[in-house]
Amino acid sequence: MLGGVAQRGIFDNMRTAVDRIGVGKARQVNARFAAMASHYLFEPEFCNPASGWEKGQVEKNVQDARRRLWQLLPSFPDIDALNAWLEEQCVAQWSEIQHVGLPEAVSDLIEQGAPAFEAAVPIISQLLKAEMAEREVRSITYQIKAARFPAYKDLAGFDFASSEVNEAKVRQLHGGEFISGGDNVVLIGGPGTGKSHIATALGIQAVEHHRKKV
User: Taking burial as the number of CB atoms within 10 A of a residue's CB, which of 35, 37, 129, 135 is the most buried?
Assistant: First the structure.
């Protein structure tokens, strides 16, 4: 990626890229998008319709990579301080996940200072992070299915240039501030003005980034 272009890109079925969705992975790609792909020599791949979890998984992978690349690593004066920090992190993450019959056993091991448990702390920490990430992806997938959106839509696929809607206002709503304020959003317009697209995009944004049920 550094100093070059990725060989493959995964995209939503946005109207700026796809003119027509065919059977399976078949797509009639927009001429300008195809020209861009040919110029930069990358292979475009498009998500399946009404499969929001596919894009969610891509975004989650990007989020994980961003954290690995830019999150500052903690420093410790000695190995004892490192072990104490790892134990604290494991206990904190453990408390965020529901368990049956295990919390008391873990507490007993911590109090006893079992050598086997101390040696397993780094592994347990990684397993807990993986479990929490997987649960987050499954939760987003379930909420999108439960919402019964007519199709997966986001603002990236909305053509503001050919619409009379207030783009600044829509993007402000997309930020989700109205959710925390408990406000309602009413979209008014004639057929074909993009009301359903915008409403669906706001709902999917609420599920994927604000963990709200819609």
Answer: 37
